[in-house]
Design a protein that fits this description.
By secondary structure, chain A is α/β, with parallel strands linked by helices. Chain A has helices spanning about 1-10, 10-30, 65-105, 105-120, 125-135, 140-165, 170-175, 180-215, 230-235, 245-270, 275, 345-355, 380-385, 400, 410-420, 425-440, 445, 455-470, 485-505, 515-520, 540-545, 550-555, 595-600, 620-625; strands at about 290, 305-315, 320-330, 335-340, 360-370, 375, 390-395, 475-480, 505-510, 525-530, 530-540, 605, 615. In chain A, about 50% of the residues lie in helices and about 10% in strands. In chain A, the strands form 2 sheets. An 8-stranded mixed β-sheet of chain A has the order 7-8-9-4-10-11-13-12, with helices on both faces. In chain A, strands 1, 2, 3, 5 and 6 form a 5-stranded mixed β-sheet that branches. Chain B is mostly helical. Chain B has helices at about 1-30, 35-40, 45-55, 60-75, 85-120, 125-140, 145-160, 175-210, 215-220, 225-260, 270-275, 280-310; strands at about 80, 85. Chain B has a two-stranded antiparallel sheet with strand order 1-2. In chain B, β1 (about 80) and β2 form a beta hairpin. The longest helix of chain B is centred in the last third of the chain and has 38 residues, at about 225-260. Chain B starts with a helix and ends in a 6-residue tail after the last helix. The chains are: A alpha/beta, B mainly alpha. At the A-B interface, α4, α5, α8, α10 and α13 of A face α1, α6, α7, α8 and α9 of B. Bound molecules: iron/sulfur cluster. Iron/sulfur cluster binds near residues 591, 594, 603 and 618 of chain A.
Chain lengths: ~625, ~325
């Protein structure tokens, strides 16, 4: 509750709302004590006095009554009506909701049917029908507004009650022989009360508006008594000649409702936990780049050369260094594996290449990605976009989530083709069918008109691969493309990929946590841990003779191809949280060879044999492996 | 699809019956003798007796309901004694005006609301987002009847851009242009609140969708950002926006009552208010049932639109 209040106070607009509402409510409370003119004394000779005239600060209305006094009394009445309606609706609605939710079954069914029916009415029809039956008048308008809002409370509170009715403490109370009525009063009610209060606070503005509306139509408060709505209604005939009589009550309604809305928004924001973490930000078209210092130049003339890449996530006041200075390169036609546990930074590295890291919160803070003479990190968005999918394409993990659910797969393929190639729709469709055939989808001609949800996981991933191939890219970055699939399908997908690679001379960066997959497909492998590369070398050499203790652990826990997530548990301990990285070796916590020198200082990636590099002070030797 | 539409139409029957029961029960709350209440100042003994016979008012609630329902099914909504004409004729006459006003408003608020929400989400935290958020806040806080009055004051009286009120000029031709001229202000005033609500919802629906993986896929394909937003993201967001459009249609219809009063628009809403003040019970009852039934039909259209948009809904 305290946290909630501070959060509310931190929201400046909500605070403004609270102050406005507080002031209006205070004024309404003390109205009888103020030295005001009688709001109902008619003084026709002095009618339509303009504001700021002697004796009437806000002027007078069409009967010469003091507007300020009428405004305050009217506000008082409007607030009281709105509050009363909210209380009545909340009480009756909550009672219905609790009964429906608590008893469930047929009771629930019948009640909720009726509630749904009532909610199917445009609310004013119902209110008008009630007023028509009971006759115009303040109390009847109040009843009508309350009645119209009963279903809203009934439905909300029922939802909450259903959740509570099956909790252990309610079951316990039932078993102990408590009567239902007592359980509802002593166990259920206290738990739903906060929800009722919140629902009330968010609807009270609405009810003030509705009662004012009925009064405006002449169906609510009757003369001489006036609330804000009927003041406005009476002033309407003099709108053109004496607008101030309309503006005064109307502006007051606006102020009240706006204040309540501001406050309500603040309450909602404070209650919505997703907003606290800032997760509701939408990612920008390309990852934000905030690079300082000189841009590292390309080291080699590789097709793709990643140099000193740093990517971090900035969430509130914390910084998660997901990628902390990664160097990698891929040659034409080569397959590079990047392996590591989840959270090691391997995916973020891959997504950084084309600026696809969600941003906010992702920021690329250093390094360069040289591709065909261009530094992609510093490249303007248009350059990046033109290269995306055409020269560097991605295959993602879960094709059900990564394909658009509402478009046919064919249309998504055709779009991929047409984005970079001004083909006619027919020509693109023919090419799309060819692509589907090339990833060995049977009946490609009919499958092209399927929606993703109509396909199996393996078929969907083939579509994902076909889409990546659409523009004959030079590099394909595959981010755990087989993780969501079962073992046989996984093997099929891998064989499709390795055939395509041979046929087309594709360079592939293959990201996985599975050494079995790496062994099948990759020429070279880079092992990542806590945002850094800890070992790199030719796949066979690394597999046969790992140098880094972490690598050897990873290899040890791969019994066969594709063991799924299970094997991760085989390494004791967890990777360090990347917002609190240790000074020395990040693996020290989990390494049995760890030594004070390991923790003393940052460790460099050192050459350890032909084409191999390792980030460890005490690399593994063959003897240790055999033991 | 036709099968689905038929299925939805059939499922509307119990809802319509439910509505008739609710209206009937509300009207049964009228204190005193129903025939006298219905006839008001026309309540001569002969009239009362005739009405009792026609509507079965001297019988119990249940037979009365079925007599009433039977008449309605045959298109007989009773007779307005104040206007001395059949209720259905009067309602149908007025309904066109309401349909034009509320329909225009609904189109306006859907287009403006969705567009504002999309822009707001795409430019999250930018000046456009902030401006839209502020305008939306004011929009959903201002009572439509007050807004309408202020619009009359500024745009009709001060600036003389639009006529003050009414649907047609007293003299002159009834051309489309004249109608649009009269329609613009009330339709806009009516649309404002719903626009705000829809914009808010569209913004959060878009933010939700833009974080999803398939948006990243579209960007990875190199699709232009405009297309990513307006095609990929909006299409997916519409799945959660459309049901709210249906709900907002109900609010537009409700708001029409106020706007018709403010702008002297000859629609059903004004007819209902006048009828209540004149205690013309049968006219109120018929009008309410008719509009509620239309709203049910409209919601079926919303469901059908949703099914056409989302192939995952089994049709
Ligand atoms: S540097 Fe030390 S702690 Fe780190 S992996 Fe090597 S031996 Fe283990």
């Amino acid at each position: 509750m305290r946290g909630f209040l501070t959060l509310l106070a931190r929201n400046r607009l909500a605070l403004v709302g609270l102050i406005v509402i507080g002031c209006v409510a205070l004024l309404a409370l003390i109205t009888p004590l103020l030295p005001l003119a009688n709001p109902n004394v008619i003084d026709t000779p002095n009618r339509f006095q303009p504001p700021f005239s002697a004796g009437a600060v806000l002027g007078t209305d069409h009967l010469g009554r003091d507007l300020l006094s009428r405004l305050l009394w009217g506000t008082r009445l409007s607030l009281a009506m709105g509050l009363a309606a909210a209380m009545i609706a909340a009480t009756i609605g909550s009672a219905i909701g609790i009964i429906a939710g608590y008893y469930g079954g047929r009771t629930d069914n019948v009640i909720m049917r009726g509630v749904d029916m009532l909610m199917g009415f445009p609310y004013i029809l119902l209110a008008l029908a009630i007023v028509a039956a009971l006759g115009p008048g303040l109390m009847n308008a109040l009843i009508a507004v309350a009645a119209v809002n009963v279903p809203f409370f009934a439905r909300n509170i029922r939802g909450i009650t259903v959740g509570i009715a099956h909790k252990e403490f309610v079951d316990a109370a039932r078993l102990s022989g408590m009567r239902n009525r007592d359980i509802i009063l002593s166990e259920v009610l206290p738990n739903v009360l906060p929800v009722i209060v919140i629902a009330m606070s968010t609807t009270v503005g609405w009810m003030i508006l509705e009662t004012a509306g009925l009064s405006f139509l002449g169906l609510g408060s009757q003369p001489p008594q006036a609330d804000l709505g009927s003041m406005l209604g009476e002033a309407r005939s003099a709108l053109i000649t004496h607008p101030h009589t309309s503006i005064v009550p109307g502006a007051m309604i606006l102020v009240i409702v706006m204040g309540i809305n501001l406050l309500g928004d603040g309450v909602r924001d404070a209650l919505d936990p997703r907003l606290k973490s800032g997760a509701l930000s939408r990612p920008m078209p390309a990852t934000t780049v905030d690079r300082h210092g000189p841009v590292p130049t390309a080291r080699t003339d590789s097709l793709l050369d990643i140099v000193g890449l740093r990517t971090e996530f900035r969430v509130r006041d914390r910084v998660y260094k997901a990628v902390g200075g990664v160097d990698l390169h891929v040659e034409q036609g080569e397959c590079l594996g990047i392996i590591g546990e989840s959270g090691s930074g391997k995916s973020v590295t891959a997504l950084s290449v084309m600026g696809l890291v969600a941003s906010p919160p992702g920021v690329i803070t250093g390094g360069a990605v040289h591709f065909d003479g261009t530094d992609l990190i510093g490249a303007p968005y248009e350059v990046l976009r033109a290269l995306r999918g055409r020269r560097v394409a991605y295959i993602f993990q879960d094709p059900l989530a990564t394909l658009h659910p509402l478009y046919k797969v064919g249309d998504q393929l055709i779009e991929a083709i047409q984005t970079h190639d001004p083909l006619s729709k027919e020509a693109a469709r023919i090419r799309a069918i060819d692509l589907l055939k090339s990833v060995r989808i049977p009946n490609a001609e009919s499958r092209i008109d399927s929606y993703p949800y109509e396909m199996s996981g393996g078929m969907r991933q083939r579509v994902g691969i076909a889409m990546a191939l659409a523009n004959d890219p030079d590099v394909i970055i595959a981010d755990e493309p087989t993780t969501a699939l079962d073992v046989t399908v996984q093997a099929q997908i891998l064989s499709v990929l390795s055939d395509l690679r041979r046929e087309r001379g594709l360079a592939i960066i293959f990201i996985t946590h599975d050494f079995g997959v790496v062994g099948q497909l990759c020429d070279r492998v880079a092992v990542m841990y806590a945002g850094q590369i800890v070992e790199e070398g030719p796949t066979e050499a690394v597999l046969r003779n790992p140098h880094h203790p972490y690598t050897s652990r990873l290899i040890d826990c791969v019994p066969t191809l594709g063991g799924g997530q299970r094997k991760l548990a085989a390494i004791p301990g967890l990777p360090p949280v990347v917002d609190r990285l240790p000074v020395g070796c990040a693996f020290a916590e989990r390494c049995d060879k760890a030594d004070p020198t390991c923790r003393a200082d940052a460790i460099a990636l050192m050459p350890t044999g032909a084409g191999r590099k390792t980030r460890c002070l005490f690399p593994e030797t063959k003897q240790e492996r055999i033991v | 699809m036709t099968g689905y539409i038929l299925k939805r139409l059939v499922s509307a029957i119990p809802v319509l019956l439910g509505i008739s029961v609710i209206v009937f029960l509300i009207m049964a709350m009228i204190p005193g003798d129903p025939a006298t209440a219905i006839l008001g100042s026309y309540a001569t003994p002969e009239n009362v007796e005739k009405l009792n016979r026609d509507l079965g008012l001297d019988q119990g609630l249940v037979p009365r309901y079925f007599i009433w329902l039977g008449h309605m099914v045959q298109g007989d909504f009773g007779r307005s004694f104040a206007l001395n004409r059949p209720v259905l004729d009067e309602v149908l006459d007025r309904f066109g005006a309401t349909l034009i006003l509320a329909g225009t408003s609904f189109v306006l608020c859907s287009l403006l609301g969705v567009a504002a929400g999309v822009v707001s989400a795409a430019r999250q935290y930018g000046w456009a987002d902030k401006a839209i958020t502020f305008v939306v806040l004011v929009g959903i806080s201002i009572p439509s009847f007050f807004l309408g009055m202020m619009m009359i004051l500024i745009f009709a009286v001060q600036l003389r851009w639009f006529p003050v009120s009414g649907m047609w000029p007293i003299y002159g031709d009834r051309t489309l242009w004249v109608l649009l001229d009269h329609l613009f202000m009330p339709a806009l005033a009516l649309a404002v609140v719903a626009t705000g609500v829809i914009a808010r919802l569209a913004r959060s629906a878009m933010l939700e969708v833009l974080r999803q993986d398939f948006i990243r896929t579209a960007r990875a394909k190199g699709v232009r950002e405009g297309r990513v937003i307006w095609r990929h993201a909006l299409r997916a967001a519409m799945v959660s926006i459309i049901p709210v459009l249906g709900i907002q249609a109900g609010f537009v219809l409700s708001g029409a009552v106020y706007i018709e009063m403010v702008f002297q628009w000859p629609g059903v809403g004004r007819m209902l208010v006048d009828a209540i003040l004149k205690r013309d019970i049968l006219l109120v009852q018929g009008g309410v049932v008719f509009i509620a039934a239309c709203y049910v039909m409209f919601n079926i259209m919303v469901d059908v639109a949703q099914a056409m948009l989302d192939p995952r809904i089994k049709t």
